[in-house]
Structure formats: C-alpha cells, structure tokens
Amino acid sequence: MAANAIRELLDQAFPGGEVEVEDRTGGGDHFQVTVVSAAFNGLPLIQQHKLVNAALAAPLADGTIHELRIRTKGTA
Amino acid sequence: MSTLHDQIKQVIDTEPVVVFMKGTPDAPACGNSMRALQALWRAGAPITGVDVLPDPRIRQELTALSEWPTIPQVFVKGELIGGADITEELFASGELKDKIDEALGAEHPQTVSTVAIALD
After folding, report:
1. What's the whole-number average pLDDT of chain A?
2. Sign of the dihedral defined by the CA atoms of residues B29, B34, B40, B43, in that order
3. Which domains, from first to last, does chain B contain?
4. Which of A29, A32, A46 to mutate to test the interface with B (most CBs of B within 10 A)?
5. Taking CB atoms and an 8 Å cutoff, what residues of chain A touch B59?
C-alpha cells in the first residue's frame, strides 16, 4: 500500500488536519503517521490514537499495514 | 479449561502491568514490543508479558476485547494505556511513572514475569 493511500484515508478522517505519512522501510507496510487536528483537542492520547486506528481500520485489519507508528497532536 | 476470552480478561484484570507482546520480556521478538518494555522498565513498572505469537487466536481475541488493533498493548490495573508510541510518550513526559506509582503505590516491587495462555 502506498503512503498516498494512507494519507488519503487520514485526510478524509481529519478534514482540515495536517497529515504526514512516512513509509519507514520503503516496503509499503511499515508506516509512521503524524496527524495534527482539532479533533484531538482535549482528548487523552489513547482516544487520539483510537481515532487514527479507526481511520485506518481496513488496512490494519487485513494486514496491509504490518506496523503503524502514530503521533498525534491537537491544535489547541 | 476456561475460554481464551476469559483467560485474557483474567490476566488483564489481575496483573498490575501487562504487556501483550510478540515474544517474551527476556526475548522480545519485535522492536515495538521492546520499546514498550523499555519505557515501562525505566518507569519502574513491574511487567507481566504475554506472548501473542504462539497462536493467532490470542491476538484476535485480545483485539476484540481491547478494541486496539496493534501489538504491543499495555494495560495498567486493567486499563488499556496504549501501544508502544503512547507508552514511550507517557514515559518521556513523566506521566507513565506517575500512573504506575499511583496505581501500585510508590514502593511497589519491580518484577518481570511471563504468563502463557493455554490453548486447546
């Protein structure tokens, strides 16, 4: 899976947010994603990460994403 | 024998700090499991490791229960705190140590153990 496809899913889930996706190994299955979004404001880290996991639920469930590193930040 | 679901739930509910991981604390089989272990250890946490690799059903059942898709998964006193990234972030900010001390008392022992899930 290309980093672009991951970015698209995150852009849809976090409209107006800043999304960065890095393919850590170049193999299309180990990703580092960084999302800055107002959707995270006031939420504990675990809830922030759950929103990211939910946005990527399909590729996580079918094994397309083998490893996902997440960094999230609110805008407040 | 109790069901897989019940076994997993019981480990989460009874062990102070549980890491569902790939491999065991003395032989981690994945860099992310290692990252979570190191952060917990440096925060002074006792660690109970559960290896999810022996059977894919362990991970399936765990994820159904925790609603968290990836491994490792760290639980403190029955509560999911997150995976490797959150555990590291909470360690860096000092919150992990506070959380552990608050949950277990400041004078808790730091032990490392492994629990194996029994399969049919």
Report:
1. 95
2. positive
3. 4-114 (3.40.30.10)
4. A46
5. none
